[in-house]
Design goal:
The complex is a heterodimer of chains A (about 260) and B (about 250). Chain A is mostly helical and about 260 residues long. Chain A has nine helices and no strands. Chain A starts with a helix and ends with a helix. Chain B contains nine helices and ten strands. The chains are: A mainly alpha (about 260), B alpha/beta (about 250).
Chain lengths: ~260, ~250
């Protein structure tokens, strides 16, 4: 009985936390569009999330594209279907790996930094100082980070897709010896613009998810340096888990839309 | 008239199981320098956060410049906060901005009609007023000493010419020489800013004796004694006597 009641308490607390996070997100987002304009802050955070993540995205995506091509080649070679390596890799990259890996990489890098920065500002009373100056900290600190992540993740995802496919092309055509014309022809037959957009929409949602989680835990940090460390850890772990969960949900939603509109 | 009026406030952080403030009544006189003292854990910082509108009292009323903080709209609260300047315990400077940018920041937000040159001139004047040399204007907070950070924090608090200046434990963690320097700075700033009410929250009774026009002592979430330095020296309240004697012996 005690176990059941403890479970109910845990679920109630979890729901309460989720409700608070959604309210926090909504308040921050609506405040961002109120005056004064925070365009400068949005651009600053876009540079932080985007520009500073691009090198790591290029590195990981090129190797992901090559490794995926090799694995699929090994499998398809057994059934003499190596001409389908290109479209299979493209499908995996555009719809799943591109948005998910971009989301995870940026959540680890920028999300951790967001949680740590806001946490430090909270424990060193900088957030209180903003509030006392008559500046809404959610409008100044949280909203621009949410918008910047929402706008930047699809761009990074596009870079990931392009570089991963380039890596796949080099590996498949120039190292594994697949026919170049067939490689591109099959991709253009199988992959539509909608498939690319599906991944980009997913990445925009992941941008909102990781920035919301990271800013939320950072904003409500308590307990000095330990609190900042815990908030950073919580921000990164929760963001990553939620990105994976949201990916599954969105894949199903897109599949449903595809079936309904076919 | 009182600049700040606190009527019978109670504050609990655990659904009214325990209270940090227990029916606190306080009037802070206008244009005076009031020092609020008390042992650690008596609710001084919680009281400050109520005055700033950062905490909502569980019961009771907090009025600043004649207006109840919790009957205000968001816009009114922002306007009210522009009339308050706060020097935080660790200065709370924005660590990604240099000294000058820290002081210009509130002007950027609340005086958008001013040109950058005008804002810079105001910021430099406030920094010089709080004793910061020009050679430090481009430094980041991490490159400043504790005393310098307090000076920049004070300049930032003064940037919008507030009607009420609040100091949260301004000398905690400083050596005796710096402590005296900060106390003098508070006194000089109060004298230079005519029509400004200053409130210093500290556990340093001697600071109260040296700079305060009016002293308030808190204990267990209530006002134990309020009055002038003379009232504190002549009181019969045992706890105040011990606090005074210890303070005098230390000095």
């Amino acid at each position: 009985m005690a176990l059941v009641s403890r479970m109910f308490i845990y679920i109630a607390e979890l729901l309460e936390e989720c409700g608070k996070a959604v309210f926090f997100f909504w308040e921050s987002l609506t405040l961002t569009f109120s005056k004064p304009s925070r365009l400068g802050e949005i651009i600053k955070h876009m540079e932080f999330v985007g520009n500073k993540s691009i090198l790591i995205i290029i590195l990981t995506s090129s190797f992901t594209g090559m490794a995926l091509s090799f694995q699929i080649y090994i499998g398809f070679n057994l059934v003499n279907a190596t001409n389908l390596v290109g479209p299979t890799v493209a499908m995996g990259i555009f719809k799943e790996l591109g948005p998910v890996l971009t989301g995870l990489i940026v959540a680890a890098r920028a999300g951790g930094a967001m949680a740590a920065r806001l946490g430090t500002m909270r424990v060193s009373e900088q957030i209180d100082a903003l509030e006392v100056m008559g500046i809404n900290p959610k409008q100044y600190l949280v909203g621009p980070r949410l918008i910047a992540s929402f706008l930047t993740l699809p761009m990074l995802c596009a870079v990931f897709d392009f570089v991963a496919m380039f890596g796949s092309y080099i590996f498949s055509v120039h190292l594994l010896g697949l026919d170049e014309a067939i490689y591109f022809d099959k991709i253009s037959q199988w992959i539509s613009f909608g498939d690319v957009c599906e991944g980009l929409i997913k990445s925009a949602v992941f941008g909102i998810v990781f920035s919301m989680v990271s800013t939320y835990v950072g904003f409500y940090t308590r307990g000095g340096a330990k609190g900042v460390g815990d908030a950073t850890n919580k921000g990164v772990v929760n963001s990553m888990v939620l990105i994976i969960v949201f990916n599954f949900i969105m894949t199903n939603i897109f599949r449903f839309i595809y079936v309904v509109t076919r | 008239m009182s600049a700040i009026e606190i009527k019978d406030i109670y504050k609990s952080f655990d659904e009214e199981k325990t209270f940090v403030l227990k029916g606190l009544d306080l009037k802070i006189p206008k244009d005076k320098l009031t020092v609020i003292i008390g042992f650690s854990g008596t609710g001084k910082s919680v009281l400050l956060k109520h005055i700033l509108g950062l905490h909502k009292p569980t019961r009771g009323e907090v009025s600043v410049l004649g207006k109840n903080l919790w009957e205000m709209s968001n816009k009114q609260l922002i306007e009210m906060r522009c009339q308050l300047g706060v020097l935080f315990q660790h200065a709370a400077l924005f660590d990604d901005m240099n000294v000058l940018q820290n002081v210009i920041f509130p002007l950027d937000e609340h005086r958008p009609h001013l040109s950058y040159k005008e804002k810079k001139a105001i910021a430099m004047q406030k920094l010089e007023m709080s004793g910061m040399g020009k050679e430090h204007f481009k430094k980041l907070p991490a490159e400043l000493s504790g005393g310098m950070k307090k000076r920049v924090g004070l300049a930032r608090a003064l940037a919008l010419d507030p009607k009420i200046l609040l100091y949260d434990e301004p000398t905690t963690g400083l050596d005796p020489i710096l402590t005296e320097m900060v106390d003098d700075l508070i006194l000089e700033t109060h004298k230079a800013s005519v029509g400004t009410t200053s409130v210093v929250i500290t556990h340093d009774l001697m600071a109260g004796f040296r700079i305060g026009d009016y002293i308030v002592m808190l204990d267990k979430g209530k006002v134990l004694l309020s009055g002038t330095a003379e009232d504190f020296r002549n009181t019969d309240i045992e706890l105040v006597r011990r606090f005074v004697d210890k303070g005098l012996k230390k000095n």
